[in-house]
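Notes from the 1:1 (GR / supervisor)

We went over the backlog. Supervisor wanted to see one worked example end to end before approving the batch request, so GR pasted a single chain during the call. The sequence is below; no edits were made to it. Supervisor asked that the structure be written out right there so they could see what the output format looks like.
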Amino acid sequence: MAWTERLNARPGRIALGGAEIDVYHWAEMADTVVNPPHRHTYFEVCWVEGGHGEFVVEGETHPIGPGSLLFARPGVRHQIISAEPPGIRLAWVAFHLRVAGGSDLFEAFAHSARALSHDASDQVAALWTALRTTGNGPALPGQDVATNAVAQALVVALAQAGTEGLRSEPVEPPDAGASTVQQALRYVQDNLDRPLSVDELARHVHLSGRHLTRLFTEHVGRSPAAYVEQARLDHAAALLVRTDLPIKQVASAVGYADVTQFTRAFTRRLGTPPGRFRTAANLHSVLSVS
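Structure output shown during the call:
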């Protein structure tokens, strides 16, 4: 079994002090990459193991090479473009982060705008290598525990790299509006398996629907309804890639009772029907490995 399969079989939750990290996906690939500019509702941290290219963040281009760490933060438009063949080798982890206080490291990471760092100490490289070594191969007694321990250490190292040189500065606390929006965003992520109305979100944070919409427009750049749909469909895309669930079950898992409505919404957002999206993702995975 590959290390990614072992970890993705039980992605799980990592609790570190006042931070909770819900890990969605571990992955690696070696290919020529030209992905379109896109956003996530979650964090994604990529490590460049080999090859060269560019990391474009909100229109700003950063050259990348071996040892580069790419931080794709929630809501931030980004794109990875590899140089000419043989392309680029990447490993990455996607996760949702909740910080309730008590973790200066992850508090700083959550509020940092850093898009790029470099693994100057080779700490991340060593941990990713250890993760592969520990997680690959047939199941052995204690292997899952050891693999998860290395994965946890790697997540901490990535957060450290994403805040290096920043934590000595005091982290400005978010204003009341930003805190309210973060509370609403967490509620959305925790309830993706059912329809969510603006009124329900507003009641959860004790605001009127109009006031919440105003805060979302200011802090998220879209309405609550648009954000909910984006979060549901992003999660659906992850399920299509990571699982073999029938499309009807994927639709239900992200709150769509009607598969036709789900297919229409998914196609409108991602430009292709869910079945074709899964086929293309699986084919890409096969080609990356071969």
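Supervisor's comment: The radius of gyration is 19 Å.
Batch request approved.
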